[in-house]
Amino acid sequence: MIDQERVELMANWIRYAARIEPEALELTDEQIVALGAGLSRNGLLNPPTPASFEKKLLFYRCEYCGKPQFRTYRTRQPRYCSNSCRQAAYRERAKNEDQKCAPIAQGALVYNP
Length: 113
What we know:
The protein folds into two domains: 4-40; 51-100, no CATH class. The radius of gyration is 30 Å and the shape is elongated. A two-stranded antiparallel ribbon has the order 1-2. It is built from three helices and two strands; from the N terminus they run ααββα. A hairpin with a 6-residue loop joins β1 (56-61) and β2 (68-73). 40% of the residues lie in helices and 11% in strands. The protein is of the alpha+beta class.
């Protein structure tokens, strides 16, 4: 005897893949389960999760405060331990960029072609 919950699950795969109600095909419960199981294993209908989207556990140090962290992430490796460290690092970078563009000292020779 086949579990009705499994039959319904496999019938949902048939509805998804064929866009048709399994009852219209006049299949037995065994046939619905067999067909649905084949569809659920199909790589085009149910692709495996790519490795880039799997959660990864990472040990890293915050680029701003240097605190060691364990973090899970799905895409890019995190750089900061919190939003406050990220904001502080941004402010520090902005301040350093302003200092690079210091005004020309008085009495300096400036070349104008």
